[in-house]
Amino acid sequence: MITVGDIVISLLVLVGSAWMLLGSLGLLRFPDLYTRLHGTGISSTVGISLLIISVILNFAREAPLFSLLAGLTLLFILLTYPLATTAIIWAAHRVRVPIFSGTLTDEWQLYEHEELSSEAGIYLEDFETEDQSQNRYMD
Predict the structure, then answer these.
(1) Which range of residues forms the domain containing residue 16?
(2) What 8-state DSSP symbol labels residue 14?
C-alpha cells in the first residue's frame, strides 16, 4: 500500500533530480565560467540536498544510523559546496579568466589591490617600512 510518506519521498526525488537536470542545462547554456559555476553550484546544492533528504526519510525507521550518516553528509555538502564554488570563482578571477562580453561591469575590479609578493598570507599594508617609521618620528 502506498503511503503519504512514499509520495513525499518520491516527490523529493523527482524535484531533486529536476534541479540537477536544470543545473546541467545551465552548464551548457551559460556563456562563461562564472555564470556556469553560479548556476551549477546553486542547483547542485539544492538538488543533492533534496535527494539526501529523501534518503533520510526513506531509511528513518528501518536504519536510523544510516539516516544519521545521510544527515551528516547533507550538513557537509551544505557547508562545502558553496565554499568550493566561491573558491573556484575567486581563483578564476585571480588568474584573469575572461568574463562574458555582455557583462555590464566587473565589480571585483573595484576591490583589486596590487599583486602581493611571494609572502602569501601577509598583509603588507599592516607593516611599516623604514621610511614610514622614520617620517613618523621626525614629525
Answers:
(1) 4-101
(2) H
Contact 57, 8 (CB under 8 A): yes
63 occurs within a structural domain: yes
Distance CA 50, CA 61 (A): 19
Q: Which of 19, 75, 61, 24 is nearest to 43 (CA)?
A: 19
pLDDT digit string, tens, across residues 65-96: 999 999 999 999 999 998 999 888 888 888 87
Q: What is the rounded average pLDDT of the residues 35-54? A: 91
What total number of domains does the chain contain?
A: 1
Residue 16 located in a structural domain:
yes
Q: How far apart are CA 86 and CA 39, in angstroms?
A: 12
Burial of 128: CB neighbours in 10 Å, binned 0-12, 13-18, 19+: exposed
Is residue 22, in this structure, part of any structural domain at all? yes
CB neighbour class for 62 (10 Å; exposed up to 12, middle 13-18, buried from 19): exposed
